[in-house]
Amino acid sequence: MNARTYTDPSVLAGIAAGASWADPEMDPTRIDWTARRAAAAIPFPLVNGRPVNPAAPTGVRFGRNELGHWGEALAADAIVTASDPDGWRWLLLIERGDGHGWALPGGHVDPGEDPTHAAFRELAEETGLIADPIDPWVKTLPARYVPDPRASDEAWMVTVPVRVDLGRGWTVLPDVIGRDDARRAEWLPAVDFDCLCRHLGYHGERLFPAHRGLLAELFAG
Prior knowledge:
CATH superfamily: Nucleoside Triphosphate Pyrophosphohydrolase
Low-confidence stretches: none
Largest sheet: 8 strands, mixed
CATH class: Alpha Beta
Mean pLDDT: 93
Strand content: 25-35%
Helix content: 10-25%
Shape: elongated
Structural class: alpha+beta
Order of helices and strands: EHHEEEEEEEHEEEEHH
């Protein structure tokens, strides 16, 4: 079976437009990988000068699929929860504008940006919710690989999850609105992971595959 090569036209369009998320270099062997590998949150190998996804194979051996950055792209995601007076937990999710379902608010960490601050920046940009990253209920979790459906063996996502628990007693949850890359932003019931998935499935929606494992571990039980 031949190794599949694919780069989505949206990546090529991003390069042509000078988008910051799209590496302009088309040949990864011409990239100096020393600095990128040193800064990577999760170590990865090179084979013949090309980066290799630490969780490969993905089904796309060569090329970037739908991701613009060769190798690891670092993101930060905000896991924001609040509970009502009865202890019922609610999770803030956004509907992605690219059709990949409902996801945690989040996005790319800018060069030199602290991932915790990146998560709060993306939270404000995508939902309008302003929170303080130094509040005591904020917990930044270790970086982890996520199985993003847009990835390839040469371009993948790693995220830094940031847990934000707003506490109990909310009779009316904070107002949110979908903005930027988000079509909608809503508080969804998440007593446990199955509760969240049942609610989405009942409405004919689905959870972004990259966040399923993360949320399943967090809301186990």
